[in-house]
Design brief:
By secondary structure, the protein is mainly alpha-helical. Among the domains are: 94 residues, no CATH class; 136 residues, no CATH class; 75 residues, no CATH class. 49% of the residues lie in helices and 2% in strands. A two-stranded antiparallel ribbon has the order 1-2. Strands 3-4 form a two-stranded antiparallel ribbon. A hairpin with a 3-residue loop joins β1 and β2. α4 crosses α17. The longest helix has 17 residues. The two termini are 21 Å apart.
């Protein structure tokens, strides 16, 4: 792992694909020309200033479409990949929150803090109205405690249920005690504290002292009290400060290890080694200051980040299944297309809305299926969701006419090519798939273009040939396993 490690073309394309929505061969070459080392590349990608974009609207489909539209044009795609990650990590759904405005405000909060300080982000999300509604903080009263947020704060947002050695990170009493800290909170335009609904020790002595982690976390049998600054609104931040000091059974910072693992799983590949996790935590100092940007930098320069780069599917490498949003936005960006009209539909094939296409693929932003977020990897793959992906590819390449809502291969590649092998290469260059296909897959595509060898050359300037063969080639490529994976 070194900042000074030379960046290869293969690795540049991999980096752009994992940190954005894909890159053509030409885009990868241009990026490599300006960033010759892994360190320089990572620094360039991470230097963006988080934007204050907020999806306005009163309905789910409206704010959904506006975020997708923003992803299509954003100049720092890593920003949106991070917002997607945090949206899944702090999963909150409009089906329960109900108000689109609250979801849009939370989305902006995640965007502004997407590469900042993780502890600051956790504190902000804990008092975010959408989260307070979704996990019932607003229904947490001293008389009738609600433990939902206290449990998920630990289980999903910070510690995880068990550490890397399979040892419990917290017990039920920790959940009950932390719930006391969050009692009395509600929101109007912003979160605010109502002391008359708060659980004070003098009022509820039978619940014991406000102490957590007496059996886990490396704090010893005395645990830690979260009333060192007194009782009331300040208890929330005190609890989070203690959580961020938690140590696992191996003496490592629990929050740092788990957060690094999740980011690696998202950006690199599933099942990362513990050595990879500990390397990036140590290199970035994430277990001390919890700054996200240095942690991401350490991930993007690590040798293990590039383990999945540069070989066809099934050839001794681990791949990740592209999220539906990644598949849709990446395809549109690579083909320089956009949905059409107020309802954001694809102008070809079944003329289906992007909202409906993504719903059929299993992912609508602003409405993950549960507090656990979306299931990743092979959970994205089923007979119905794959048919939805194939249908989307068909619709894209069937879009005719002019302008940016139409599929225009003449804007993407040289139509003067006549050799079938060169045409396949040019198309894979456009889609960022060069080198991802096996020799057998390439031969099958050539056979498709040549009608199993019946013709030796193609005239792509002929409308019928282009419409039948070239458009079909792009459809096939976007339906292949190599394009579903990264």
């Amino acid at each position: 792992m070194a900042d000074g490690t030379p960046l290869t073309l293969q690795h540049a394309r991999h980096l752009l694909r994992r940190t954005g929505f894909g890159a053509s061969q030409a885009e990868a070459q241009a990026f490599l020309a300006g960033h010759s080392t892994r360190g320089a590349a990572a620094e360039a990608l991470l230097k963006f200033k988080p934007a204050g974009f907020k999806a306005g609207g009163n309905d789910h489909d409206v704010i959904h479409d506006k975020w997708i539209k923003y992803m299509l044009k954003v100049k720092a795609p890593l920003q949106e990949k991070l917002v997607l990650f945090w949206h899944d990590h702090f999963a909150t759904g409009i089906a329960k929150v109900y108000y689109a405005r609250l979801m849009a405000n939370q989305n902006k909060l995640l965007r502004l803090n997407c590469r900042g300080n993780f502890k600051t982000l956790v504190k902000a999300v804990s008092k975010d109205p959408a989260m307070m509604e979704y996990l019932d903080t607003v229904r947490n009263y001293a008389e009738v405690p609600n433990e939902n947020y206290a449990r998920e704060l630990q289980e999903l947002f910070t510690l995880g249920v068990k550490d890397s050695a399979g040892v419990d990170n917290y017990v039920q009493d920790d959940v009950a005690q932390i719930a006391r800290a969050f009692s009395g909170w509600t929101y109007g335009k912003a979160a605010y504290f109502r002391s008359w609904y708060h659980d004070y020790t003098d009022d509820w002595p039978q619940r014991g002292p406000k102490v957590i982690y007496q059996s886990t976390g490396g704090f010893g049998p005395a645990g830690r009290s979260f009333t060192v600054n007194g009782e009331g609104a300040q208890e929330v931040d005190a609890v989070i400060d203690i959580i961020f000091e938690h140590r696992d059974s191996q003496g490592k910072n629990t929050v740092a290890r788990r957060t690094a693992r999740r980011l690696i799983e998202y950006f690199a590949h599933p099942e990362p080694s513990l050595a990879f996790i500990d390397d990036v935590v140590a290199a970035s100092g994430f277990d001390v200051d919890f700054e996200i940007t240095p942690l991401l930098h350490a991930i993007f320069v690590h040798d293990d980040f590039y383990l999945t780069a540069g070989s066809p599917v099934g050839v001794a490498t681990r791949k990740s299944v592209r999220w539906p949003v990644d598949y849709v936005v990446g395809s549109l960006r690579l083909l320089r297309m956009k949905p059409k009209g107020r309802y954001q539909y694809i102008d070809g094939g079944g003329y289906n809305r992007v909202f409906d296409q993504l719903s059929n693929m299993g992912q609508l932003v602003f409405d993950p299926p549960s507090v656990f977020g979306w299931d990743w990897e092979t959970s994205w793959v089923s007979s119905s969701t794959m048919l939805a992906r194939y249908g989307f590819a068909r619709d894209l390449t069937a879009a005719r006419g002019g302008g940016s809502t139409a599929f225009r291969p003449d804007k993407l590649m040289n139509l003067g090519l006549t050799d079938p092998n060169a045409i396949v290469t040019a198309a894979t260059d456009v889609l960022g798939m060069t080198g991802d296909l096996t020799a057998g897959e390439e031969a099958t595509l050539v056979a498709y273009l040549t009608d199993n060898g019946a013709v030796s050359t193609l005239d792509l300037k002929d409308y019928d040939t282009r419409n039948r063969k070239l458009h079909g080639l792009f459809t096939l490529l976007m339906q292949m396993p190599a394009y579903q994976l990264q």
